[in-house]
Design brief:
5-stranded parallel sheet; 5 helices; about 20% strand; alpha/beta; 5 strands; about 150 residues
Length: about 150
Amino acid sequence: MTITKILVPIDYSEHAERALSTATNLAQVLGATVHVVHVGPDAPYFGPPLAPGRAFAHELAEANRKEFDAYLLALRERGIEAAGTLATGVPYVEINRLAKDIGADLIVMGTRGRTGFEYLLLGSVAERVVRTSPVPVMVVPVPRKDAEPPAKR
């Protein structure tokens, strides 16, 4: 299997940054391209055309677009060339849909490492992507606080 396109879901967290770093290093070694995706909240509006709620949904979409564009610009300023897609909807569904649409060979994503009640309450986007992905998924884990640093060679 040749990896030429790597999809990296981002949520602007340190976990996503760790996954992006892993993906860009891998892409450099393999000569692959990186495509980032952020799945923002879907703010549907079900009301009259001129009601205030409609303006809020539009403002939320504009704020998400501005934040994503600024993120892509910051990546380029750091020397990371990545295509990007801003999507709305259910994160794992949109990530898997985009993986198919762009012909991704690999998804590299971070995980927050939630456990227990928090995991039951919130679930795990990474786990859902792994279970339903049309392509292989590399999950970059959260470093354990009690883990020793790797030995230097």
